[in-house]
């Protein structure tokens, strides 16, 4: 990449702020594995010996999804992230279903979502901001993303004690909102290009 001219930063573009909002929604609705593990252990009524195997499955899917999403991102851009978010948004009803086969499928979807978030969600920021503002943009993105995941995890922890259905709805709706914002963003950018 050519060395940019040393010009003062003009702020972050609107596309970055919309993308940040979408990523925050996705992070807010993405349950941490410890909450899923707690649920699985309470459902099994035993020591939950199979829980580490489900986590291992999710991590294997995470690794493959990260590679696949990265490859797709280089070819189709944010469409790859939108697809991964749309697919993984369905993990909560399955992972918290209480049915083993559905839980396994839920963990596969959870792994896809995690792989996409770890591999391409942050990478997309580089193409949205000027080189001279990338450091700040990455820092801001990571801070807001982490805070959103923390707030969402805390809310889902509280919801778990009161309503499992409420937890699942919160997860699906917030991730769905993130996907809708991403779709609007991707569609708008595609219309501007072509």
Entry summary:
The longest helix is centred in the last third of the chain and has 30 residues, at 164-193. The chain has helices spanning 14-28, 33-44, 51-76, 78-88, 91-95, 100-121, 123-126, 134-162, 164-193. It has 194 residues and is an all-alpha fold.
Written description of the protein model:
The chain has 194 residues and is an all-alpha fold. The two termini are 24 Å apart. The protein has a single domain, classed as Growth Hormone, Chain: A (Up-down Bundle). The protein contains nine helices and no strands. Helix 3 packs antiparallel against helix 4 and helix 4 runs antiparallel to helix 9.
List keywords for this structure.
disordered N terminus; 194 residues; mainly alpha; elongated; 9 helices; 79% helix; single chain; Growth Hormone, Chain: A
Q: Label the structural class.
A: mainly alpha
Number of strands: 0
Question: Strand-and-helix sequence, N→C?
Answer: HHHHHHHHH
CATH architectural grouping: Up-down Bundle
Cα end-to-end separation: 24 Å
Radius of gyration: 18 Å
Provide the CATH top-level class: Mainly Alpha
Enter the CATH topology name.
Growth Hormone, Chain: A
Q: What is the number of helical segments per DSSP (H or I, 4+ residues)?
A: 9
Averaging pLDDT over every residue, what do you get? 91
- Portion in strands: under 5%
Number of discrete domains: 1
Shape, per Cα inertia axes: elongated
Low-pLDDT ranges: 3-8
Largest sheet entry: none
- The CATH superfamily turns out to be MFS general substrate transporter like domains
């Amino acid at each position: 990449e050519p060395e940019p001219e040393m010009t003062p930063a003009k702020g972050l573009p609107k596309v970055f702020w919309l993308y940040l909002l979408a990523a925050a929604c996705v992070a807010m609705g993405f349950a941490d594995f410890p909450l899923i593990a707690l649920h699985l252990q309470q459902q099994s009524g035993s020591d939950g010996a199979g829980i580490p195997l489900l986590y291992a499955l999710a991590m294997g899917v995470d690794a493959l999804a990260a590679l696949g999403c990265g490859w797709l991102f280089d070819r189709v851009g944010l469409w790859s992230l939108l697809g991964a978010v749309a697919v993984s948004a369905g993990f909560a009803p399955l992972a918290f279903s209480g049915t083993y086969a559905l839980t396994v499928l839920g963990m596969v979807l959870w792994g896809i979502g995690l792989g996409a978030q770890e591999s391409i969600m942050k990478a997309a920021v580089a193409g949205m901001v000027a080189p001279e503002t990338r450091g700040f943009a990455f820092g801001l993105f990571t801070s807001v993303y982490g805070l959103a995941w923390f707030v969402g995890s805390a809310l889902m922890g509280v919801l778990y004690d009161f309503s499992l259905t409420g937890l699942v709805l919160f997860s699906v709706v917030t991730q769905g909102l993130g996907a809708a914002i991403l779709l609007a963003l991707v569609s708008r950018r595609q219309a501007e290009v072509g």
